[in-house]
Amino acid sequence: MPLRVLVCNDLPIVRDGLRSLIEAEPDMLVVGTTDSGIEAIVLARTRRPDVVLCGLELHGISGVELIRRLMREPGDAIPRIVALTMVDDDETVAALLHLGVNGVLVRDATGQELAASIRSAAKGQTTLAPELTTRLVDWFRRSNRRVPEELAAPHEELTARERQVLLLLARGLSTEEVAEQLSIGVTTVRTHLYRLRCKLDVRDRAQLVSFAYRAGLVKSA
Fold this sequence. Notes:
By secondary structure, the protein is of the alpha/beta class. It has helices spanning 12-23, 37-47, 63-70, 90-99, 111-122, 130-143, 149-152, 160-170, 175-182, 186-200, 205-214, and strands at 3-8, 28-34, 51-55, 80-85, 103-106, 127-128.
């Protein structure tokens, strides 16, 4: 079954462009487009998309309010959400992550990044635009915090391969790039990521990256 995507954006030309990019992917289908935050809620309930691609400027209610309301839907009705923002300041990105989005793309995102974010979101993973990941990494490096005691022990249980995967992930590599770097299969990388999440008691990729820097596993250059 193809991934079902709902596109929400206030500009017709952007909606049409996003539809074309998404439907060019063999495993994706656009189930609706809208410029209205209220209509987006109705479409999310009736067409049950796997992923909602959401701009922040919508008619009726804002994209942020739309995300907030979708997150309050009944458990299995909550879609995965990728936010597309023209404003990538730290406050906006932080607000989106706190809302629980599964991805944040900025205005110069490529079609390849768009497709990768949708696929990752559908799996429940969290991805950020490469430049946002770099800023997150820089923030952790600048913070220069001591490792909390509760973080000191868990990483000692990791295998050498799990550490390699975690370090490459923290440096911004995708699952496919980690597999290529380590000369192992993508499925094997995903298995390591699953075990890492279980061992470290974290939910997604963003929290794994956060753990790596907070625990001091990745050092400043």
